[in-house]
Amino acid sequence: MEITARQITKLLPFRHNSTTYTSFIILFSIQLIIIMNSCKVIVHARQFRAISARTNGARRAPARYHNLAAFAATPGTRVSSGRFASNPKDSSSVLSNGYTFPNSRLRVLTQVDDLHSLRKSTRRFSTSIHVKSDSAETAPFIDDNIADPSSYAIPTFKKGDDVLTDLPKGTRILSFGDVHGDILALYKFLQASQLLHPKSTITNPIWDGGDAILVQCGDILDRGAEELFCLRYLTSLARQAPKHGGRVLLLHGNHEALNANGLFHYADSKGNEEIEVVLGKTIDAKKSDGSERWRIQYGGNEPSRWAAFEPNGWLAKPLYSSMHVAAIVGKTVFVHAGLTKDHLDTYGGIENMNEAARDWYLQEYPEELQNDDGYGFKNVQEVIDNANLRAKTASKTMPECLGGGIGAASPVWMREYSSPGDSAPTSPLAQKMIDDCLNDITHDVQRMVMGHTPQNHINAALKGKAWRIDVGASRGVMNGTPEVLEIIHKGGENDDDVINILTVEGDRIPASERQIDGFVFPF
After folding, report:
1. Which of 13-17, 20-24, 243-247 is least confident?
2. Measured on CA atoms in the order 290, 291, 297, 301, is the torsion positive or negative?
3. Confidence band, pLDDT 50/70/90 cuts, at residue 303
4. 463 three-state secondary structure
5. CB of 489 within 8 A of CB of 434?
6. Contact call for residues 452 and 415 (beta carbons, < 8 A)
7. Which of 5, 53, 110, 407 is the 20 to 30 Å CA partner of 371?
8. What integer best gives the mean pLDDT of the chain?
9. By the 8 A CB rule, do 300 and 337 touch?
């Protein structure tokens, strides 16, 4: 299968007007080779120039691009901190099809014979990471339990947990969007939600929401330094809430799916350090021989992060297998990016989507991917091949409802209802798409709530049926002002729902002030 330059460009996570970032484009094409089963990415020289010409006008690439290509290097490279660093004297790199791109920083997948250095650097990397917090307020609470998977557990999924329509009149339903590894943003979301006990602190959440239901719409991971911290905070509330008649539902976002596939190019370096410090040593102790050699099988691609978030990984059973792709609560359907009637028809409805995601996370990996004894590899090429197989196995078995990429139409990637931010959707089909979907869901569902696309403020489009709640609150995104959507189930006249937007300042803004159909939102 040949993928054109145009198709590759659509998948790029950023664009930039400098040719110094053309190397990222080639790295991305190699990434496609890794994750696509039985496909071959061919970039011709003319296509490559076309890609470069199209990368104008957007933001700079992440400082470090974590994928399997970073494992390999051009001849003469040295091992540093568990990764291969390109030789600074090299002025060019060669793509596998023979084209040479001068001044490229591309590190080509090639065989490096020094497996002993890889093992040595893996050990050194696992013992040299230290987390430095900017303030005591954001310092992770380190104790004996935070590395145990039970600290990230949520109530085990039971049939019907994703369709909660038989609710008492007046039930509060709260929802907020993307957190992206920012504990301060998460804390502000929860304060605005009025779900925390007054004695709660940033390190000790105490549920005080009674029978309220909280839905977090995905993308807890990436872009921030406190991903595990955020997960512990939310999962602690998820375990507390049922004791008071409440619920906390966590949804899959596209960044959860990326991490499960070993794609870490949106990960923050401090987030990687947090995962290494908190989980790395515990995974060392729990693996077959109690050593660090299990890391080698991940090919230098953030072993602790990959082992934590992959299917059948460290957090798969306690956490990710009980999260949802979508959920119905009262008269509202919640999803990370959006749902269409085609999704429902293709994937067999919301319940089947959630079951497919759950089964994927709980799958048993084949024996050849369980290489905790790193000395079983004879050379570095075997390590590369094994890491590629791991990525390909996850990608090949991933349900389509979690799949896709930038521009894709899946429930965790689509933007037809949410883009552009703070404006009416530009897609002429958006209104019909959401109307058809809500009609097909039944259960008297009247609206859809989604994150994924940053807005300056929570707002509703498409005749009030599309509530867009990602406000870019993470410091790794827009450092936006946290707001929370509140729905009072059958709290109005004729048993209509009452919808408000809650702010950190304690304001309760009525839904009527946040409708943007047909014009640009006046902020």
Report:
1. 13-17
2. positive
3. very high
4. coil
5. no
6. yes
7. 110
8. 77
9. no
Give the Cβ contact number of residue 208 at 10 Å.
18
- Among 119-123, 246-250, 401-405, the range with the most confident prediction by mean pLDDT is 246-250
pTM (predicted TM-score): 0.76
- Integer Cα distance of 39 and 230 in angstroms: 37
How far is it, in rounded angstroms, from Cα 49 to Cα 245? 59
- 75: which 2 tokens? 């001849």
Give the phi and the psi of residue 380 in degrees, each rounded to 5: -65, -35
**Which H or E element spans position 448?**
strand 447-450
Contacts of 516 (CB under 8 A, 6+ apart): 422, 423, 424, 459, 460, 461
Cβ partners under 8 Å of residue 198, min gap 6: 208
- Amino acid 178 reads D
Phi-psi region of 457 (alpha: psi -120 to 50; beta: other; left: phi over 0): beta
What string of DSSP letters covers 221-251?
SSSSS-HHHHHHHHHHHHHHGGGGT-EEEEB
| Percent above pLDDT 70 for the chain | 71
pLDDT of 75 = 26
Q: 3-class DSSP state for residue 468?
A: strand
Split at pLDDT 50, 70, 90, the class of 518 is low
